From TrEMBL:
Transmembrane portions of the chain: 40-68, 88-105, 112-133, 153-171, 197-219, 225-246, 349-371, 391-410, 441-461, 481-500, 521-545, 565-587
GO cellular component: membrane
Membrane topology summary: Multi-pass membrane protein
Any one GO MF annotation of this record: transmembrane transporter activity
Family to which the UniProt record says this protein belongs: Belongs to the major facilitator superfamily. Phosphate:H(+) symporter (TC 2.A.1.9) family. Belongs to the major facilitator superfamily. Proton-dependent oligopeptide transporter (POT/PTR) (TC 2.A.17) family.
SUPFAM superfamilies: MFS general substrate transporter
InterPro entries with a match to the protein in the record: MFS_trans_sf, POT_fam
Organism: Rhododendron griersonianum
UniProt keyword annotation of Transmembrane helix present: yes
Location in the cell: Membrane
Pfam short name (any one): PTR2
Protein name per the record: Nitrate transporter 1.5
Keywords, sorted A to Z: Membrane, Transmembrane, Transmembrane helix
């Protein structure tokens, strides 16, 4: 009995000292101990951090279009374009953050540095608004216009908001991936948690913005801009402090080095041997020995067909390696199969990524034209005024509801799946877990089309109920702002399928040395969506403006045809859906050595 107790004690000690299987390390660079690091303790800290940081970001972003029109004096089209460009810049900076994270700094250091920049930008915006932008005091509401601003004041304002863009943009793709790093995907239990984390991450993002879209939005709409910005700065500071407090418990992947040089080596090595015949199978191609790939320390990727011209980089000739030892002497002449497959993976991801950009054009309307449309509707219930930007709360509630319903239906409870089998049997053939990420993203596009049609119908009826007088277009229609609820709810539902699916898809399909880059692809599609939206608005205004016609999106929406713009977006998204289905059917999933994931053989079915 005593011996049994000793054995149990040794077993418990061994379990406590068991390292993770995915190669993560602790803050000191030692192998991460499973029971002392990561999992939901670290994951929850990161989720709370994300919620607070999102509250801070949307405390600025959600009402920025109104700040530009009421405080900075821009018209509706100019303000919508400014917001689109700013939001686009936020997500362009995600590429910078992902590059620094994957190559040199690691995700933890990158998150900490960019969060600090984010706080500095918010404090600068709060100070400038309090001291000289929102003058005279109380201006910036619906009735009181603000005065003009000097070029120095304008410069400080733009410096502040673009510091916010830099800080939030560099932080966002890394915090999602860093949170996923806290779960060992080579452990069956933690692997399940890792997939669930992305849904909860997007839920935390939306719950964080709920406070911004309701309480902060109300105060800012009433002209208390400085108060709203200070609240955002406080939230971002608290988020940074909480993030740093979790330092001892985090798991880390070491940076894999500059991916650009690895990609360049493959292209150069393949070009050097452009006359060499490519073998029919990958068995004769060069690969390093061992479980890990020596070029970046990541897992080996199995050879796939397609982009065969790149396989020349792994063909062994007497100039590069001896056939017996297979020792590589020059990475610019010969590359292992895994390195070649990294390039193939990125090339395969690009068409899928391009197809998500137009969805982001639809998504960005929620922060610009939806708000302007709401401001031109009846925004009062009795004597209570509803800030137009706060209507995005319905989007957040929709996201929260659909994330819960989706996880219950398609992952957690088989009883739900049995009820829905007649509806999704064909879709589920490709994955026993339920809908694949590609299928979910396709559903998101379909719902986005319906959302644009709904927005167009609401605008059509809003134009039929104008008020006789309209000074600044606020309250220029007798149609209640609550008619916008369906379009916000539909956008929320589409987000769950599109953006959660994107986070899971790009993280799972990116090679080990490019995980942050995978998350950045999701963010960058939002960025380019904002730029395309800005370009589309400019083109539509130029084409639709005639001698006596002010265009589809004029300052006074009662004189325009915003409904036509929404229907145009629905038509463009429908065409994008057709292209997406073709690309999704063509896509081949990444295959890691020694992992038999059902997603490796996933297929897009319609």
């Amino acid at each position: 009995m005593f011996d049994q107790a000793i054995n149990d004690m040794k077993k418990n000690i061994k379990e406590e000292e068991t390292s993770t299987l995915d190669g993560t390390v602790d803050q000191h660079g030692r192998p991460a101990i499973r029971r002392r690091t990561g999992t939901w303790f670290a994951g929850i800290l990161i989720l709370v951090n994300q919620g607070l940081a999102t509250l801070a970001f949307f405390g600025v972003g959600v009402n920025l279009v109104l700040f530009l029109t009421r405080v900075m004096g821009q018209d509706n089209a100019e303000a919508a374009n400014s917001v689109s460009k700013w939001t686009g810049t936020v997500y362009i900076f995600s590429l910078l953050g992902a590059f620094l994270s994957d190559s040199y700094w690691g995700r933890y250091k990158t998150c900490a540095i960019f969060q600090a920049i984010f706080v500095v930008g918010l404090v600068s915006l709060s100070l400038s608004s309090y001291i000289f932008l929102v003058k005279p005091a109380g201006c910036g509401d619906e009735q009181t216009p603000c005065g003009s601003h000097s070029s120095t004041q304008l410069g400080l304002f733009y410096l502040s908001i673009y510091l916010i863009a830099l800080g939030n943009g560099g932080y966002q793709p890394n915090i999602a991936t860093f949170g996923a790093d806290q779960f060992d995907e080579e452990d069956s239990k933690e692997g399940h948690y890792k997939v669930a984390f992305f849904s909860y991450f997007y839920l935390a993002l939306n719950l964080g913005s709920l406070f911004s879209n309701t309480i902060l939005s109300y105060f800012e709409d009433e002209g208390m801009w400085a108060l709203g910005f200070w609240a955002s700065a406080g939230s971002a500071t608290l988020a940074l402090v909480l993030f740093l407090l979790g330092t001892p418990r985090y798991r880390h992947f070491t940076p894999r080095g500059n991916p650009l040089s690895r990609f360049g080596q493959v292209v150069v090595a393949a070009a050097r041997k452009w006359k060499v015949e490519v073998p029919q199978s990958g068995e004769d191609l060069f690969e390093v020995s061992g479980k890990k790939c020596s070029n970046n320390g990541g897992r080996k990727i199995l050879h796939t067909h397609g982009f065969k011209f790149l396989d020349r980089a792994a063909i062994i000739t007497s100039k590069e390696c001896t056939m017996q030892a297979k020792e590589c002497h020059n990475p610019w002449r010969i590359c292992p199969v895994t390195q070649v497959e990294e390039v193939k993976c990125v090339l395969r991801l690009l068409p899928i990524w391009l197809c998500t950009i137009l969805y982001s054009v639809v998504f960005t309307q929620m922060a610009s034209l939806f708000v302007e449309q709401g401001a031109a509707m009846k925004t009062t219930i009795s004597s209570f005024h509803i800030p137009p930007a706060s209507m995005s709360s319905f989007d957040i509630l929709s996201v929260a509801t659909f994330i819960f319903v989706y996880r219950q239906m398609f992952w957690l409870h088989p009883c739900y799946r049995r009820v829905l089998d007649p509806l999704v049997t064909r879709l589920r053939k490709s994955s026993p877990r339920g809908l694949t990420e590609l299928q979910r993203m396709g559903i998101g596009l379909i719902i986005a089309i319906v959302a644009m049609v709904a927005a167009g119908i609401v605008e059509h009826f809003r134009l039929k109920h104008p008020q006789k007088t309209c000074t600044n277009c606020d309250g220029s229609s007798s149609l209640s702002i609550f008619w916008q609820v369906p379009q916000y709810v539909l956008i929320g539902a589409s987000e769950v399928f599109m953006y959660v699916g994107q986070l899971e898809f790009f993280n799972a399909q990116a090679p080990d040395g490019l995980k942050s880059f995978g998350s950045a692809l999701c963010m960058t599609s939002i960025s380019l969506g904002n730029y395309v939206s800005s370009l589309l608005v400019s083109v539509v205004m130029k084409i639709s403006t005639r001698d006596e016609m002010p265009g589809w999106i004029p300052g006074n929406l009662n004189r325009g045809h915003l409904d036509n713009f929404y229907f145009l977006l629905a038509a463009l998204t429908t065409a994008d859906l057709v292209v997406y289905v073709i690309c999704a059917k063509w896509y081949k999933y990444i295959k890691f050595e020694g992992i038999n994931s059902e997603d490796n053989n996933g297929e897009f079915r319609v």
